[in-house]
Specification:
Elements (H helix, E strand, L loop, with lengths): L14 H32 L3 E3 L3 E2 L3 E6 L11 E6 L7 E9 L5 E10 L3 E2 L2 E5 L9 H12 L26 E3 L2 E2 L5 E4 L3 E11 L2 E8 L8 E7 L1 H4 L6 E10 L5 E8 L29 E9 L7 E8 L6 E8 L8 E11 L12 H5 L5 E4 L4 E10 L2 E7 L10 E4 L4 E4 L5 E3 L2 E4 L8 E7 L9 E6 L4 E6 L4
Antiparallel strand pairs: 1-8, 2-7, 3-6, 4-5, 4-8, 5-6, 9-12, 10-11, 11-14, 12-13, 13-20, 14-19, 15-18, 15-20, 16-17, 16-19, 21-30, 22-23, 22-29, 23-28, 24-30, 25-26, 25-29, 27-28
């Protein structure tokens, strides 16, 4: 649709012809409005909206359609392709790879789908960037918000990674291969251990980072990983997910990342996902163990002592139960080499959005590592009962309901005492978990080696001789 040019506008500098030019301009306006509106319709709808009778199976990857000629499809443009018979049930989202305006041959890269089956009647229309991440996925995020929460529900937020390197309840400064370090993150390394540290204000926009240091004389690769709990990721089956992180290596080499998928028993993940550190084949049975699916892997090379970032996406499989996110040094690094990480984010969609900082991050972490602390002379808040002069049992309520009942504890030695009937403190020599009495509502502890208690008397659990902590172990993935 072409638009007829308007006649010259009237001007006060030409009073003789002002009326004539004004009449001509006003007379041309109705046709101009009609032509402009028609062009707008063609630009906003007709040029990017169409139908197709191609027989195509719903799924991700390369898909070919025959559509009308003369359309405005451009490489990289986002389209939603819906089943004419059930457009809200069967949909594919993706970007245009190529379009032949003369023949109508359209090639798409589909990154997210809804529904299944082979269809022969389609409606095509332009989509917001990210496709399902802005449409279908948004519904899933809203579902999380309705059903989720800290106390055992799904993670009701965009970022599925928990633990942004400020949280370190273990107080960890070093970890061996496949051992947890800062909250929700564990170390992967070819041998030995990796030294770790929290970095404050590493760069603008990042309040915290985690620095990994290679401490051994022999060169070795090393990295960091996190497993996403099933209830926080399973709703994103067949959905595009973006993995983002800022990274700063001390060396001039590649930092590699991967999005992995676990389809075995939910939350029974084999966490040590590296099979062969020497392999250059980043596939199941190559670099990775055979029981994971590799959704996406890639590299970034910021340069030595320079921050860079990766932002990449992959479409999760239809049998997804857990996701595993990994970042590591692609090659073996010399002693004292470091890798600094900040702002990790894993979210629905193909593009990275501004980082999500949550005020309740520590509460989210305590689902996987229940934690109690008290200063010397203060009560832990756990009520108990003395059942002998030398022993008492206490139940500590959780601050956040754990994922599972802890199977063991780690407690500060010689820092616990039971309140006696006359108001004194009886210091305990041992504190142990009473697993048979522990529940998802409270942790049962037995203090032994006390003296001066009266069987049957109520008591309180105190810290003595300085600050004391208790960690409930066995709740991590």
């Amino acid at each position: 649709m072409s638009i007829t040019a308007l006649p010259a506008a009237p001007s006060t500098s030409d009073p003789t012809n002002f009326a004539v030019k004004a009449d001509a301009l006003l007379a041309a306006l109705p046709a101009f409005v009609n032509e402009t509106n028609a062009t707008a319709v063609a630009m906003n709808l007709n040029a990017t909206t169409d139908t197709s009778a191609s027989s195509v199976a719903i799924g991700t990857g390369v898909k070919s359609f025959t559509v009308s000629t003369g359309k405005s499809y451009q490489p990289g443009m986002w389209l939603v392709i819906a089943d004419t018979a059930a457009p809200s049930t069967n949909q594919m989202y993706g970007t245009v790879t190529s379009y032949d305006t003369a023949t109508g041959a359209l090639v798409m890269n589909i990154v997210s789908v809804r529904g299944s089956g082979t269809k022969t009647a389609w409606v095509l229309s332009q989509s917001a960037p990210g496709g399902a991440a802005v449409g279908v996925n948004a519904d899933v995020v809203q579902l999380d918000a309705l059903t989720g929460g800290v106390g055992g529900g799904s993670l009701s937020s965009r970022n599925k990674i928990i633990g942004h390197f400020d949280e370190n309840q273990r107080g960890s400064t070093s970890a061996a291969d496949d051992v947890y370090d800062a909250d929700r993150w564990y170390v992967l390394t070819e041998s030995g251990s990796v030294t770790t540290a929290k970095i404050t204000d590493p760069e603008s926009g990042a309040p915290w980072a985690r620095r990994l240091t290679q401490p051994d004389a022999a060169p070795k690769p090393f990295g960091y990983a996190q497993i996403i709990e099933s209830k926080n990721i399973r709703a994103y089956r067949s959905v595009a997910m973006n993995f983002f992180m800022r990274v700063k290596p001390s060396f001039a080499g590649n930092v590699r990342y991967a999005i992995l998928e676990w389809t075995g028993t939910a939350d029974a993940v084999t966490s040590d996902v590296v099979l062969n550190w020497a392999s250059a084949s980043f596939t199941p049975g190559g670099f990775f163990i055979a029981t994971v699916n590799v959704i996406k892997t890639g590299t970034v090379a910021p340069g030595a002592a320079t921050y860079g970032e990766f932002s990449d996406f992959g479409v999760m499989g239809s049998a997804l139960n857990n996701a595993i996110l990994v970042v590591w040094t692609e090659s073996a690094q010399a002693q004292n080499a470091t890798l600094e990480l900040n702002r990790p984010q894993f979210e629905p969609g193909v593009v990275h959005t501004p980082h999500e900082w949550r005020p309740n991050e520590m509460e989210l972490c305590q689902r996987y590592l229940p934690f109690w602390s008290a200063l010397g002379g203060q009560s832990f808040g756990g009520a108990g009962l003395s059942y002998a002069s030398t022993a008492a049992e206490f139940t500590l309520p959780y601050q956040v309901q754990p994922r599972v009942i802890p199977t063991s504890i780690q407690a500060t030695p010689n820092r616990f005492a039971a309140l006696t009937g006359i108001g004194g403190l009886s210091v305990a020599s041992t504190v142990t978990l009473n697993g048979s009495a522990s529940t998802l509502q409270g942790l049962s502890l037995i203090l032994g080696g006390t003296s001066g208690l009266t069987a049957g008397d109520g008591s309180l659990l105190y810290a003595t001789g300085g600050a004391a902590t208790i960690q409930g172990l066995g709740c991590e993935l």
